[in-house]
Specification:
single chain; mainly alpha; 19 helices; 5% strand; binds calcium ion
């Protein structure tokens, strides 16, 4: 969901807790100055934490959690105010995609990934056979999520989720995840004290939230426990299992950079628009370098992460599989480029429009409000640039005879202000 990608990074920050397979380590830079929080959001819960916990205990026991599991997991647990703060922050500034990619696909990470791929060659081979998922993609996600198991978060997941269930903005999310976490403990995969993760409950080397864990985590090293914290075999196989379920096709590329012809219709750059590769070729789209790395019959979409002046990509169903892991164009692109870079690729021919400042959250809200005032229906005025906002931007761009790429820039915002 991050296409005209100024929004993309911000959007991921906002939705991370819900979608949550995000590598929260990478998000710290987008949680810069928290915006003001309304009185309603500051409201204290009506009951004490102990009262809430006792009520939840009854629900958990009714849902099949044993009293012993519950009481052990909750021993000494108090709300964590840092979780509340993180949950309520609405970042005003986000990094542009080129800065995000610079750290996500850094030379150090590429080097580490190549080393990890060699070290784990035997298990990755078995994973490819068992799940049909290419090793580079699995290792790239490992690098993105936890820096190859080095950064898994440091918070007690029961405490974080109990805090979110008690006083978070989405208490239902917290409660569902907490119940799922208690099931994991009861199943014997990990003791509560070792269940470590991010403030939003993303756990271990794969940064799975508990419901995702219960659906996709596997025991690949055969010790009887799905240990995504301590076992890289389990973590890598769990990631592969997730990608397989999301439709990964072994041996197929995630996508590749392309060049667009003069006069191209940029409004075709939407994930909702899919065409056979051959059709894009007919329209003059060409690989930016080398030969076509994909089946001409493959159904692909065009992505312009920074508008028409930045690099363009055709992306396949494997890109969509990565998006299911974390619904962010920047993230999926980083995983794809990182995977390519392990094999010596991953360099881009196009240049990012680095002179463009990113719109702040307030400016994105102003942009949407102005579009709304013009009757262009950008959807909710929430600072999140989604498909509706892009469509509204395109409609405005057409009225002023500009390339309709749907990408919000400071120049576009100025033009909108002047036009009103
Ligand atoms: Ca295991």
């Amino acid at each position: 969901m991050r296409k005209p990608v100024s929004s993309v990074v911000g959007q991921r920050c906002l939705l991370a807790a819900v979608l949550s397979l995000a590598s929260f380590g990478l998000l710290t830079s987008c949680t810069e100055p928290p915006a003001k929080i309304s009185e309603a959001e500051h409201a204290q819960p009506a009951q004490s934490f102990a009262q809430w916990r006792d009520g939840f205990r009854t629900q958990a026991l009714a849902a099949g959690i044993s009293a012993q599991t519950f009481d052990r997991a909750f021993q000494g647990i108090e709300p964590d105010e840092s979780v509340v703060t993180a949950d309520r922050s609405q970042p005003e500034f986000s990094r542009p995609i080129w800065q995000y990619l610079e750290s996500a696909v850094s030379p150090a990470r590429v080097h580490n990934g190549q080393g990890r791929t060699l070290e784990n060659a035997e298990v990755l081979q078995r994973i490819e056979i068992t799940y049909g998922v290419d090793r580079e993609a699995v290792v790239a996600i490992w690098g993105m999520e936890s820096n190859f198991g080095q950064q898994m978060g440091s918070k007690n997941v029961i405490r974080s989720l109990a805090t979110l269930a008690y006083e978070g903005r989405r208490p239902d999310f917290g409660r569902d995840q907490l119940l799922a976490a208690l099931r994991i403990i009861q199943h014997g995969d990990v003791p509560a004290s070792n269940m470590i993760g991010s403030w939003a409950g993303a756990m271990g080397q794969t940064q799975f939230i508990p419901t995702t864990y219960n659906q996709y985590a596997v025991d690949f090293d055969g010790d009887g426990r799905r240990d995504i914290w301590g076992s890289s075999s389990d973590a890598l196989a769990s990631t592969a299992n997730y990608l397989k379920t999301s439709g990964w096709q072994r041996g197929q590329t995630w996508g590749f950079e392309v060049r667009l012809p003069q006069g191209f219709d940029y409004s075709l750059a939407e994930m909702s628009i899919r065409k056979p590769m051959a059709e894009w070729l007919r329209q003059g789209v060409r690989p930016a370098s080398g030969t076509l790395p994909s089946d001409p019959q493959a159904s692909v979409s065009l992505v312009l992460p920074a508008g028409y002046r930045g690099p363009a990509f055709l992306v396949t169903d494997n890109f969509r599989a990565i998006l299911k892991y974390n619904n962010s164009t920047s993230y999926a692109l980083a995983v794809g480029l990182l995977a390519d870079s392990f094999k010596g690729g991953g360099q881009l021919a196009g240049r990012w429009p680095v002179q463009d400042a990113q719109l702040s959250r307030s400016e994105r809200i102003e942009l949407q409000q102005t579009l709304t005032d013009r009757g262009l229906a950008p959807g909710a005025v929430d600072g999140i640039i989604g498909a509706n906002t892009r469509k509204a931007i395109r409609a405005f761009q057409q009225t002023i005879d500009q390339p309709a790429d749907g990408y919000p820039t400071p120049a576009l915002l100025r033009q909108l202000r002047n036009a009103n």
